Amino acid sequence: MQAIRSAARPLALSARIAARPQALPVRFAHSAAESYDDFNARYADFFANAQDLFELQRGLNNCFAYDLVPSQTVVEEALKAARRVNDYSTAVRIFEGLKEKVENATQYQQYVTETKPLREELGVLLKEELYGNK
């Protein structure tokens, strides 16, 4: 029985596989660091062209995953995209994510103040305005 198993596996092939070095090429994901202005331009353009809810939410997840707070322009384009795809809850959640990203309440309040005309135009209320400060 042992002779049959040995004959079924060619010895030369198994020896070549065992002797082959297993070196894998190293690939780097990013070639250069992206500047803050490039980051904002990229995401403002992304949200300006987002056409469905999946694309918008994917972009928001990626944008908020960075250690950067998006500029007012990016937030405004994301709000417009949320209303364009007719998803009110995502428009409200943009500010929830922004509240977590900023360093303090003053910065968050500046975003709220600066985007107020657009929020009123689009009919987007903040979570605090909907439910009070809980």
UniProtKB/TrEMBL annotation:
Keywords: Heme, Iron, Membrane, Metal-binding, Mitochondrion, Mitochondrion inner membrane, Transit peptide. It is found in: Mitochondrion inner membrane. Transmembrane segments: none annotated. InterPro entries: Cyt_c_oxidase_su5A/6 (IPR003204), Cyt_c_oxidase_su5A/6_sf (IPR036545). GO terms for cellular component: mitochondrial inner membrane; respiratory chain complex IV. It holds the Pfam family COX5A. It comes from the Eukaryota. Pathway: Energy metabolism; oxidative phosphorylation. GO terms for biological process: mitochondrial electron transport, cytochrome c to oxygen. It is a peripheral membrane protein. GO terms for molecular function: metal ion binding. Belongs to the cytochrome c oxidase subunit 5A family. Component of the cytochrome c oxidase, the last enzyme in the mitochondrial electron transport chain which drives oxidative phosphorylation. The respiratory chain contains 3 multisubunit complexes succinate dehydrogenase (complex II, CII), ubiquinol-cytochrome c oxidoreductase (cytochrome b-c1 complex, complex III, CIII) and cytochrome c oxidase (complex IV, CIV), that cooperate to transfer electrons derived from NADH and succinate to molecular oxygen, creating an electrochemical gradient over the inner membrane that drives transmembrane transport and the ATP synthase. Component of the cytochrome c oxidase (complex IV, CIV), a multisubunit enzyme composed of a catalytic core of 3 subunits and several supernumerary subunits. This is Cytochrome c oxidase subunit 6, mitochondrial. It comes from Rhodotorula graminis (strain WP1).
